[in-house]
Amino acid sequence: MSTTASIDPVVILRSLEKRCAASAASLPDKVERKNEWSGVAFRVGEHHLLASLGEVVETLVYPTVTAVPNSCNWVRGIANVRGKLLPVVDLNAYLGNEPAVDSRRTRVLVLDCQGVYSGLVVDEVLGLRHFPETSCRNVTDAVPASLAAYVTQGFVMDGRFWGILSLSSLAESPQFMQTAV
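Request: output the structure for the sequence above.
Response:
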């Protein structure tokens, strides 16, 4: 007669649990983060600006745009983005400067503020930037008159002023809403 040892699955599982617990890595210590302001950094002409993460829906590579007749010179046209029509505005031209030159770095910031769904053509998106909230400053003379209505605060980092462009203020502006000539 053969003797077969009975295998108890509960004993095997407990043994496996003990070995896993002994070799498991512990969780990292909780790192306390400072209060930071985070936003999308971009360039419009010579100005380095920021937009709050809550105001930017997405960033697009410059899409195919269909011109809209009888519209202001700063309106590039309408783009079809995943089946939704997106009005595309050249932010630099809207501010009274030369229109943005299309390049491989040209991007469109999509905003959806107070029911205004629109795309802003910018020269370049520079990624996310994080600043300590305590370093936020009110704007004095660091911003030209064309931006003064939309940029009231900003940060200084590495000798460069980063103005916070309020996309909601831009969307509420009567001039921005008046696109017809």
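The domain at 36-174 is CATH 2.40.50.180 (OB fold (Dihydrolipoamide Acetyltransferase, E2P)).
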